[in-house]
Amino acid sequence: MPHFNKLLIVMMLFVSKTFAQQTFHNPIIKKTISQQWELDSIDRKGTFRLVSYRPIYFAAARWSTKKNEAPFNESGEFATDDTNIFDNIEAKFQISFKTKVVEGLFFGKGDLWVAYTQKAHWQVYNKKLSRAFRELNYEPEIIFNFPMHVDLWGGKIRNFGFILNHQSNGKDIPTSRSWNRIIFNIGYEYKNWNVNFRPWYRMPDEEDENPGITQFIGDAELEVGANFGKHEFYTIMSHSFSTLKKGNIQLNYVFPIRGHLRGHAQVFHGYGETLIDYNVRQTTLGIGISFANW
Predict the structure, then answer these.
(1) How far apart are CA 111 and CA 39, in angstroms?
(2) Residue 176 annotated as lining a ligand binding site
(3) Whole-prediction pTM value?
(4) Alpha helices in the chain (DSSP H)
(5) How many other β-carbons are positioned within 10 Å of the β-carbon of residue 22?
(6) For the segment 235-258, what is each residue's pLDDT rounded down to a tens digit?
(7) Beta carbons of 141 and 115 less than 8 angstroms apart
(8) Taking the domain 2-292, which CATH number applies?
């Protein structure tokens, strides 16, 4: 199993680097929303091209102030008595890609995309646990996207869309976690700033493996990104409309190292960094390398 884990991470890094080379020829210039989603005619490149979607990165070390010692669910049915077997320090990586499958829907304006994101937390330094993966989150999506040109506050609303989103960790009871959402997205551009607001509706689930997840993780997400020369910053925040005390914030700083190689520093605070930790409040610090960003 340890040899398989090593082979898997090498394959993930190779694929991530390939996406980065194909879609980010100049790591200094941040992509516009039109370039990200091929909104304008000059940016359209056709269908079935595999390109990066969300940030692709590998954090060699990620430290947590409060590890999830015994994953549990307040429903009782999915409770577990797992003992404290995890380390506070682990590796973390994310791969993400998308492809356009239909172009010019609804009066020739809208596009249909499919996307996949996978986030992994790897106890690579934990010999007692055979360096196993603590948590894997799988997130396939179907995305309907429409271009817009609406002037607002000196910038422009550039796109509107909605997403059919499924997220799960692929585990069995008692540590199985999953939910389905309809996510709406509005993209706004101002100078070198990109802003995306994504409220969502959680679809009903009779076998709710994570009750109250929206109270912890939130009902909407705000992503704000900007580049300053060779340095890039982006923040992802989620918030619950039902309570002011929950939600989370993730701060990211991407900086040049050499050539196309870029460093990545990440700070997370709040609930739900992973699905298994949806009701665990923690602060985490991660450092690694970045292959592709928003």
Answers:
(1) 9
(2) yes
(3) 0.84
(4) 2-23, 33-37, 105-108, 213-217
(5) 13
(6) 999 998 776 678 999 999 999 998
(7) yes
(8) 2.40.230.10
Domains of the chain, by residue range, sit at: 2-292
Cα 22 → chain centroid: 20
Give the CA distances from residue 183 to residues 69, 219, 268, in Å, rounded to whole numbers and listed in that order. 31, 10, 22
* Number of neighbours of residue 161 by Cβ within 10 angstroms: 21
Nearest to 210 by CA among 24, 77, 23: 77
On whether 96 is known to bind a ligand per the annotation, the reply is no
Residues across the chain: 294
What was the pLDDT predicted at 210? 85
What are the CA-CA distances from residue 219 to residues 118, 148, 165, 223 (Å)? 21, 24, 14, 14
Do 117 and 54 form a contact (C-beta atoms < 8 A)? yes
- What dihedral angle (degrees, nearest 10) is formed by the CA atoms of 217, 222, 227, 233? -20
Tell which residue, 222, 187, 259, 166, has the closest CA to residue 36.
187
* Residue reference for tokens 């990620």: 62
Please list the active-site residues.
166, 168
